[in-house]
């Protein structure tokens, strides 16, 4: 059997150097992204497309309406959602760091940083829900097409974040109970990728949300 | 060209034209929907925009074709490649794969550019926002 | 091909009666010709393959791979790309303008057609004429038809006069009618619009200008009041049995807008969007049990007695 | 070519048998993660739905046999033609090609022992089954969707369709979409990561390219459908206004979203058929496909360009002319990749030594119909002509030529071609040929006259038509054709069913060129005793490689028998990267499928809190699922 450059590749498990968790060693030996990461990235592609179509629908409705937002709805204030989103962007740092720590075999540190990120992200979500309820006092999705697409977009975006929080929690529990198994080491990397994408989507959603105000 | 070329170069060669077409396509749609919709949000000079986008896409696609040509010629000169081509393009990677992708890229970019040229020339001949 | 044998069609795209339809039909015949060459050429290659199945390679060319690959490039890329770009230019840049709606203000006449489940309301703006399921236009006159809908999406299609255009809620689409041949051309709703999509047709009459103007003037006048006793009784039935809540008859208290305007019902050729011919017998059957003829129609069974129906038919038949 | 096992290799094989032994009986089928078993489950399920869709088609044709038919009421006709479309597209062709053929064959073709995510593969099946039953519950209870598979608003809005018919459609398709998304992720990762060592991109079977392209299309197209149906259900059930003109909504939004999904969908349907054709043709012509890279690129390019043509379904809505030509240009150029493939197939048959057995006959039929459907497709990219014939029977003729003629024929051919692979027995060749000719004649009579009937003005979706329109004779022919077609299909099923029990035992009757023929028929649970290595795109033509596999089995090299193991390789060059432990069974996929079914049923009846409860349960089940790592089982 030959690999890329022609030299034989043994089909079997390589010996693990002492002091390194087997999963970490395996991650270092890998030339390509593992299947789990491929799967996560592809699911996120579907997610991005879903948000892309919703955002496209937003502009389609916008372009085909004489008034946007429809009469009776004031444009969003800019400051609060922007601040909240900036807050969420900052949480990428602990997530990124947790992933690095995990790939150095430092389980406790990884757990702590995910926990930290979880707390900050939960704060973000709580604030956003507060804004959401405020909006709801001003206008409802049944008011007009603007209300419909606005609430659908925001709800899905927040649900995305909420699902991320659940993933954080799962990772914390799993890393604490099962340790850095190969499965969950890939899980931490998947989690990090998930958050990168969610935050990117949230930034774009913010821009869409503020379109009428700009 | 250094050998083996980076993945980025190879995949630019394969996907440059199609991606440029996709950008041209989506941007043009966005502009026409924005201008011809009932809201009439924007009043852009659409013909120049269309031509500009098409020319940009064309340039990227031509660059991708140039990359593919170089890859193709380079891999064709690599001794046993000729024999490999006869065996159905299944040569030893990475050279075999890159040769294969270069053939793919040449065709793909050519087709993508045809679309860009068709719409780049065709659209300015029509009246904007005239209902079909 | 077998198409020539089917010229009895009443709604055929290959028997055009206007310039746009004619151009489209010409485009079709050219495309059919080219397609036939490609189709039979490819089938011929398969037939050759069958007869030479015992040996590898091609007759005359041998087993060279380059020949097979050249064939793919030639027939798969080179020839089609020329043909397709040409088709693009001819049909989508040039011809599309020929069948497009007229530029505003360039036509002598405008007609408004409103789609309903499952009939057509036709208005002649500026004249007060409102009719249903039939459109009269003068020959050799460019007519701007504005199509809208009152409920779901319909599609306005008279193949012999022009291609189709959808009627979409919230949009005012337009299409050109420019008949170049006298006659009666059938049109039909082409977008699925519910149970009776199949029975939503109409007639377009392309007429000499004099005939057309006589018709238009007749439609503009309110109908002559009923003279016979039966018809007068029928009018009372009409005004007291809910008919008037859905239908309009000009010059009477009936001003309903849900169903077709019946002002000159007796002048029309068909009933229920041309599903049945307009004669007293069919009209009576229709009033007696509309759901049997057109299941799902919004016209209810009013439970009238045979006498009442007879009177009603006499009245409606007097609306000329 | 079956692997010849030497006594030393026998030990390894025994160990593999022990490790990969499935759980017995019904439990084994319910908890299975074996791609072959899942493929078989998909096959029989989709075959049932094909039967249902076929009966619906015959009902439609019987109703239209003559003018003013009374077989079906207009209400029933609308439900039947809607369900015919939904069934054939979502419950037959896609699950049959990706689910049954893809699942069973892909891992075998790339020399893997399972899909990349075996449990997700199982859950795809259970969700698909749930969604199919979900939509047919609507039909059985008299609430089948009735606004067409395209389901245009406002006809599908609460105002014009007040009962729950459309809700079965809306939620059912989102439900179904989850299954397809999971399946497409699985296929992409499997194709990129699970190929046998040495199988670089330029050595991957064309079948895999076709399935890769279809999976990518599914992945990126389905969100648009989910988005559209979500909006629809929000409009219908919660009073939102996405499509409601009176409140700033727009009915064209639905059409755009639906066709952004709908056109790639057409290629999702046909791409696997291309893949099957490119597997059968080299085998029966005893030569490689002509111009391998161009065929591979065509399969992928069709999927890519397929995202830029959607508005050609909407040329009559009155878009700005300028908008339409962007789509028309792509609709025309997308013909080129198809033409490349078409002439590559023809050139291969022409320059090879074709052996016209049943599978190849079906492929020849496929080529004929595909040319016809493709040519009528080109005419539909000429905007004025499209505006003339769209929504007429001409379009019905076009897409049945493409979807039935060109997508189902390879499925039928493939059923014969891989029959010996799956069952270890041979079908009856004479009956096979007879069934082909019946099907061919039926297809011709059913679908060809539709072109003409469309050109003389018959619109689609009419439950009946008047007598004096010149449509009667043609419709009569079509109906007769439909019955001939149905008899051909029944004959195929009978032939295969009887051959399953009575057929001649057979291992590798056709000398196929891809790796699935490197193992026994039917394949063992572990697929390959030794992981094959690859040096060309036509793996079975390189007998040296296969002999080498036997030598390696002797040495125990690449046997991977310490657990459920299979190698993972790099995405581009197929270099060996690591050895993966695969899960062997799991109860969670059917449980997740069941919980999702309950979730969607509750959404249908608008019991939001109970639905939320099932959703949370579903999440918990997913958590429990991942509690069980592959190495644990």
Order of helices and strands of chain B: HHHH
Largest interface: C-D, 94 and 86 residues
What is the helix tally of chain B?
4
Structural class by secondary-structure content of chain B: mainly alpha
Strand content of chain B: under 5%
Mean pLDDT over all positions of chain D: 93
- Estimated helix fraction of chain B: over 70%
- Which range best describes the helical content of chain D: under 10%, 10-25%, 25-40%, 40-55%, 55-70% or over 70%? 55-70%
Number of helices of chain D: 20
Overall average pLDDT of chain B: 86
Which stretches of chain B of 5+ consecutive residues score pLDDT under 50? none
Percent range for β-strand residues of chain D:
under 5%
**End-to-end CA span of chain D:** 32 Å
Q: What Rg of chain D is obtained from the alpha carbons, in whole angstroms?
A: 24 Å
Rg of chain B, Cα atoms, Å: 19 Å
Find the count of extended strands of chain D (DSSP E, 2+ residues).
2
Please provide the count of β strands of chain B: 0
Order of strands across the main sheet of chain D: 1-2
- How would the global form of chain B be characterised? elongated
Q: Indicate the overall shape of chain D.
A: globular
Kindly, what is the distance between the CA atoms of the first and last residues of chain B, rounded to a whole number of angstroms? 49 Å
Q: Quick summary of this structure?
A:
The complex is a heterotetramer of chains A (214), B (132), C (320) and D (633). Helix content of chain A is 73%, strand content 0%. Chain A is an all-alpha fold and 214 residues long.
Core attributes:
heterotetramer; A: 214 residues; mainly alpha; Four Helix Bundle (Hemerythrin (Met), subunit A); 73% helix; elongated; B: 132 residues; 4 helices; 72% helix
Folded structure, characterized:
The complex is a heterotetramer of chains A (214), B (132), C (320) and D (633). Chain A is mostly helical. Helices cover 73% and strands 0% of the residues of chain A. Chain A has a single domain (35-213), classed as Cytochrome c oxidase, subunit III, four-helix bundle (Four Helix Bundle (Hemerythrin (Met), subunit A), Up-down Bundle). Chain A contains seven helices and no strands. In chain A, helix 1 (22-29) packs across helix 7 (182-210). Residues 1-12 of chain A have low confidence and may be disordered. In chain C, helix 1 runs antiparallel to helix 2 (65-99), helix 4 (229-240) crosses helix 8 (306-317) and helix 6 crosses helix 8 (306-317). Chain C starts with 18 loop residues before the first helix and ends with a helix. Chain D is mostly helical and 633 residues long. In chain D, 66% of the residues lie in helices and 2% in strands. Chain D is built from 20 helices and two strands. A two-stranded antiparallel ribbon of chain D has the order 1-2. In chain D, strand 1 (565-569) and strand 2 form a beta hairpin. In chain D, helix 4 packs across helix 8. The model of chain D has no long low-confidence stretch (mean pLDDT 93). Chains in contact: A-B, A-D, B-C, B-D, C-D. At the B-D interface, helix 1 and helix 4 of B face helix 9, helix 10 and helix 11 of D.
